[in-house]
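User: Let's play a game. I give you a shape written as tokens, and you guess the letters that built it. Ready? Here's round one.
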């Protein structure tokens, strides 16, 4: 199987076009302009709101004008993660894709199928007048990956639809009808920079090669968090009067951290003991995560001395807080088997000048539980002396038990494939939660092809599932009820 003959061809051709266009979160201007031009060249009604979201309307197929209006929705930004050491600029360089068996992958970077493949399906439907559908709207939102900004800024009345199909799910055969809400909690330690004592051994610890993944969808899979591993190492070295010189770990708020680096020093006489402890502890980590972290790597290297280090009191409090702060699954759902209700992700820790900035994210499909999780995280950092702030966050999407669109979606799937899809909630955040606030009358479902390794360079798209989702989507559109 080669990239030029992937099926459905129209969808993969559109996806190839998309991957030539830079679209990091907050920098989607080129992608938005491309879509505006795309809609206008097709002679379709095209709008862009003040937030940057693009809406393209397509009239109904002949004879289907009396169907209710459906909006197809996806986001145009992508998570920009790459392998360590790879020379790649997400603001200028096109994504390089290749086929590996049944999977489509990118060379050393995120693939952008989250949610570029949804965008490609919308484009293919807009461009093909042989597809049967009622009045149609295609909504392309901006900055979903960095706070759902596009959905937050969406103006009431921008859409006219009765039904909404979100194309941002990652498991073919699953229909999502509810999602978690979330918020970020940020902490800042204000350190003093003290003179480095005499006769210190400076070293750098690097953690790399972790699996990472989506901090919502993958949080229950017991994958290692690079920030937590580094914190555990530093905590073990406190007995040697460790002083921190620099810490740069983790990345995006919605990604499980894969890499991290810290530079510190201890009195020279403890150098060999530290190396022994390091080897013992990292061997224990490898055993602890033997099932999920096949490529985990630890490096301890001698570093150049620095004239200043973080004051010991702040450094010790920081280490204790990082070890203590809740991370991972906090509660499982009481009603849905094997579904995560509440979680937290220690996303990044970075020294900037004399401030240490920490970003965490909390999720839950129960608002009170999400608030409690944020309060737990805030409390740990506040007790350690940090300034803490939890953002406003975004709401969850509540199940509509009487959803006509869900019935149509299930029945369409059964007709095509001879079985019912699985109806699920998702622990990740979807824009549907925000749409439901501004458009409470709109009935919504979410589905999409199978993706794995999202938000990491291991992101991959299961090619055969794209055809299944495409066929399913077209079947649903033909069966939307009349007004």
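Assistant: Ready! My guess for every position:
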């Amino acid at each position: 199987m080669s990239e030029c003959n992937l099926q459905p061809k129209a969808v993969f051709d559109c996806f190839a076009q998309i991957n030539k266009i830079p679209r990091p979160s907050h920098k989607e201007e080129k992608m938005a302009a491309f879509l505006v031009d795309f809609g206008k060249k097709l002679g379709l009604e095209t709008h862009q709101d003040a937030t940057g979201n693009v809406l393209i309307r397509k009239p109904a197929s002949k004879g289907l004008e009396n169907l209710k209006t459906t909006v197809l929705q996806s986001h145009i930004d992508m998570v920009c993660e790459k392998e360590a050491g790879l020379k790649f600029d997400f603001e200028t360089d096109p994504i390089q894709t290749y086929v590996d068996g049944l999977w489509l992958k990118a060379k050393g970077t995120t693939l952008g199928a989250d949610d570029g493949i949804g965008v490609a399906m919308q484009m293919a439907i807009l461009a093909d007048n042989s597809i049967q559908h009622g009045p149609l709207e295609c909504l392309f939102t901006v900055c979903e990956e960095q706070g759902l900004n596009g959905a937050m800024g969406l103006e009431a009345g921008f859409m006219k639809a009765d039904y909404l199909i979100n194309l941002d799910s990652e498991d073919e055969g699953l229909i999502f009808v509810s999602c978690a809400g979330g918020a970020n909690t940020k902490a800042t330690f204000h350190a003093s920079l003290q003179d480095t004592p005499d006769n210190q051994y400076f070293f750098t610890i690097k953690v790399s090669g972790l699996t990472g993944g989506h901090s919502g969808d993958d949080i229950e899979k017991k994958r290692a968090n690079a920030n937590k591993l580094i914190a555990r190492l530093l905590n073990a070295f406190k007995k040697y009067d460790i002083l921190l010189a620099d810490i740069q770990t983790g990345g995006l708020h919605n990604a499980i951290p894969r890499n991290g680096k810290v530079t510190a020093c201890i009195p020279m006489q403890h150098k060999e003991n530290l190396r022994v402890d390091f080897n013992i502890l990292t061997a224990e980590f490898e055993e602890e995560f033997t099932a999920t972290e096949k490529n985990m790597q630890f490096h301890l290297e001698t570093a150049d001395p620095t004239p200043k280090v973080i004051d010991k009191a702040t450094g010790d409090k920081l280490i204790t807080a990082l070890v203590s702060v809740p991370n991972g699954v906090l509660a499982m759902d009481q009603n849905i088997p094997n579904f995560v209700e509440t979680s937290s992700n220690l996303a990044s820790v970075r020294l900037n000048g004399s401030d240490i900035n920490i970003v965490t994210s909390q999720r839950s499909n129960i608002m009170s539980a999400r608030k409690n999780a944020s309060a737990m995280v805030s409390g740990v950092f506040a007790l350690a002396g940090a300034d803490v702030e939890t953002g406003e966050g975004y709401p969850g999407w509540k199940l509509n038990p009487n959803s006509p669109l869900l019935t149509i979606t299930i029945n369409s799937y059964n007709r095509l494939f001879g079985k019912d899809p699985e109806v699920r909630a998702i622990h990740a955040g979807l824009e549907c939660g925000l749409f439901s606030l501004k458009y409470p009358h709109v009935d919504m479902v979410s589905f999409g092809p199978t993706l794995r390794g999202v938000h990491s360079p291991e992101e991959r798209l299961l090619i055969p599932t794209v055809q299944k989702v495409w066929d399913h989507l077209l079947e649903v559109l033909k069966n939307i009820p009349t007004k």
